[in-house]
Amino acid sequence: MPAILSRVAPRTFTVGSRLMASAARLETVPREEIHKEYDRKKTFYHKDLEIHLANPEQLKTKPLDPTKLKFGHTYADYMMTCDWDATSGWHHPKIEPIGELKIHPGAKVLHYASELFEGMKAYRGVDNKIRMFRPEMNMARMKRTAIRAALPDFDSEEMINVLTEMLRLDQEWVPNSDVCSLYMRPTLIGTDPTLGVGCATEAKMFVITGPVGAYYSTGFQPVSLLADSRFIRAFPGGVGAYKMGCNYAPTIWVGKEAASKNCQQVLWLYGENEDLTEVGTMNIFLFWKNEEGDMELITPPLHRGLILPGVTRDSLLELGREWGEYKVTERTLNMQEVKKALAEKRLYEMFGSGTACVVSPVGKILYHNKVTDEYEELHIPTMSSKHGVMQKFYNTINDIQYGRLIKDGWMRDI
Amino acid sequence: MPAILSRVAPRTFTVGSRLMASAARLETVPREEIHKEYDRKKTFYHKDLEIHLANPEQLKTKPLDPTKLKFGHTYADYMMTCDWDATSGWHHPKIEPIGELKIHPGAKVLHYASELFEGMKAYRGVDNKIRMFRPEMNMARMKRTAIRAALPDFDSEEMINVLTEMLRLDQEWVPNSDVCSLYMRPTLIGTDPTLGVGCATEAKMFVITGPVGAYYSTGFQPVSLLADSRFIRAFPGGVGAYKMGCNYAPTIWVGKEAASKNCQQVLWLYGENEDLTEVGTMNIFLFWKNEEGDMELITPPLHRGLILPGVTRDSLLELGREWGEYKVTERTLNMQEVKKALAEKRLYEMFGSGTACVVSPVGKILYHNKVTDEYEELHIPTMSSKHGVMQKFYNTINDIQYGRLIKDGWMRDI
C-alpha cells in the first residue's frame, strides 16, 4: 500500500527523506542503501542533502539571450554549501537560494589563500537532456588538490550526486542553445578564524553555477600572447599542477602587462630554455611537422608539476590518439623550437585548450627576447591552416557535449 | 566661547565631525585640514572614518592571563573595514564591532586568492603608553604588495591614522605586560562577484586585532627545521617578495610533512645549490666566522625576489650595522657552506626573525640530501653560543618596543 503523501510539497526536505518516501511508496529503493554506514570524516553524503527551496520572489529572471552572457557574471538561483570541521567531519550538504556567505574576518581563506576550485559545465543536448562533461575527472583533480592544499577530502560520487540535484533544481538555467552551457564552480575554502599558518580546522565546500554564452559568437577569434620568461606561473616543487587559488593571484598583474601590449593572454614560459607550459589559464597544443618529418600534435608533459592536468587537454589527447591521423606526443617544447619551426614553415597550428572555450587559436606571439631585451612578433598561421586539426577537435568535443555524438563514458546524464 | 556639546555621546560619529567639533571648541584644528581636496581614487581618508561604538553587551571579556594566549585565536572588540570599487574609489572607512563579513560566493578572494595582508604589533610600554613598531614599514610593504596583486593603493599615513583610532578604542586590549602585545592584521581582498581571472573591480580593506601572549614563556625554545629542496616557497619571476596570501597556502602541506618528521618549521631552500631563503614564515640569519676569519652576521639578499623584506629583518640589519661589532652582510648562502662551517665549528648561531617572535633560535636541521636521498641531522649550536648575538637583538628590540630604550623614528605613539 503506498504511503499517503502530503499534497503540499514541503519547502525544505532532505534527500534521505525523499528516498524513504520513495521506498515506502514504490518499495524499490533498498533500505540498506539508506542506512548504510556513515563515515563523515571521509565524506559528506548525498542522502544527507538538505534542500531549501526558494520562495517564488527569490527566483531571478533568466537572461533573454544567453549567447550574449559574459563569463562568470550571471548566477543561477541555487548554491550548494557543506561545512566541515576537524572534530566531527562533514556536516549535511545543503542546497539553498544563492546568497552571501558569512565569513569571519580571521578565516584562513582570506589570509593564506586556503582555497581551491574546479571549473566544469553542464550542457543541454539536442535531445533536451542535460549532461555533465566528464565530471569524475574534475572531482578526481579536486580531491588531489584538496590533499595538497591541506583541506578535507570527500567522495567523488557523493559530490556528483549533489551536483546532479543542483542541476535538476536549476535546470531552467541550462541554456537551450548548442553554443551555451551552465558553468559550475565547486569551491573549497578554509574557514576557521585563527591566524596561525597551518591546517584549517574548519572548511566549507560550496558550489555556484551560472549560464555562459557563446565563446565564439562570430567564429574563432585568434589571440595574441605575451611570452616573457621574466614572469613565471609555476615551478618544480610548487603547486602548478593543482587547481589552488594561489596559482591565479600572481597572474593578474602579468595579465595587465600583457593587455598593455595588446596581448589577450600570457604564454607562460619556464626555465633557461624557455619551455612552453601554459597559455593564460589554458593548456597549450601545437600541430606541426617535426624535425623527423612526422605530422605531430604536441603538448607539454605533466611530470614536472608545471602543468595543470586539464580535462579538455586529456580529452584532446585521447581523441587524437584514437583517430591515429598523426603522432600525439607529450614532451617539453621550447621557444627556440617554435621559432625554428615557424622559420621553416613547419608550424601549422597553435591553440589553447580549456573548459571555457574548448580550443582557442593563437594568432601571434609577442616574444621578449631575453638576450637582446627586445620584443619580436611571431605570426602563427593557425587560422589559415589547411589541416583543420583544432577545428576537428572543436567540432567533435561540441558534438559530444551537445549529444550529437556518443563517446562512451564521457557524458553524465542528470 | 566653546560650543555646548551633547552630554549623551553619540554611538556613531565620524572623525571629521569630531574634528569640526574640536575645531569649534578649541579653535586649534585648522579648517583647511578638514576641507582639503579629496581624491578617493587614490586613498581613503582618516577624516571620513565612521566609528560605530559597540553596545556594552557586544564587548567581550578580556583574557585573565594574556601571557597564555595562543597566537591568532583571540580578537579585540573592533574591526576596521573600508570598501573600494573601481568606479568611485574608496568609500568611507568604518570602525565597528568585529563580526562576520558578508562575501558573495563568487568573490575573487575565494577563487583566485585575490588577497594580501600585513602583520604588525602595538605594545604597552613600561610608561603605560601604547606604541606601534615601525608601522610605516608595514604600510610601505602593503602598498607594494597591493600593486603586485592588482588591488587598490592607498595612503600610508591615512591608514596609520585609522589604525591609531582602532588602538585608542581597543586600548584595553593591549596587554599590560612586557611579554605580550596586540597583534594587528590589515588585510586587503578582491570582492567583486565575477569569475573571470582579472583585476578586481571591488575590494575591501579590513583590519582585525587581537592580544597575543608570550612567545617564550619558559625561555627560548630552539626549533628543528626540515630542509628539503624538493619543496620550494618562492622563485624568481614569482611573488615571494610580497605579502600575498598565495605564498602561504602551498606551505601548509609542507609544514605537515615537517611536523611528521618532528620538525617545527621548514627551512626553505632554492635552486641547484640549495640556497637558504627563509624559515617557516620568518627571515633567516646566521652568525659565524666566515672563511676569511671575520665574525659575520649574514642573511640572504632581497634582489632575486625570493625573500620577504621583513620589518624585523631590516631592524636587525640596522642595529647590527649601528653596533659595528661584526661584519653585517646580505648575500646568498647555501647548504654546503652551512655544512662546511658546522664541520669547522665556525657556525655559532642561526635564528629566524619575524614580528611574532622577534628572533627564533634554530637547534637542528633535518637535511634531505638530494644525492643520497637520505636525511642528515645537523646540530646548530645556537643555544650554547657564547657570542649572544641573537640574545642582544632580542633584548634590544624588546627594550625599544616596550619603551625602555629610545630608537629615533621606530616607535609611533597613538
From TrEMBL, chains A, B:
Top enzyme class: transferase
UniProt signal peptide: none
GO cellular component terms attached to this protein's record: mitochondrion
UniProt-listed SUPFAM superfamilies: D-aminoacid aminotransferase-like PLP-dependent enzymes
PTM annotation (N6-(pyridoxal phosphate)lysine): residues: 243
Presence of keyword Amino-acid biosynthesis: yes
Gene Ontology molecular function, alphabetical: branched-chain-amino-acid transaminase activity; L-isoleucine-2-oxoglutarate transaminase activity; L-leucine-2-oxoglutarate transaminase activity; L-valine-2-oxoglutarate transaminase activity
Keyword terms, alphabetized: Amino-acid biosynthesis, Aminotransferase, Branched-chain amino acid biosynthesis, Pyridoxal phosphate, Transferase
Residues annotated as transmembrane: none
PANTHER family: BRANCHED-CHAIN-AMINO-ACID AMINOTRANSFERASE, SUBGROUP IIII AMINOTRANSFERASE
Family according to the record: Belongs to the class-IV pyridoxal-phosphate-dependent aminotransferase family.
Protein name as it appears in the record: Branched-chain-amino-acid aminotransferase
Protein's organism: Caenorhabditis briggsae
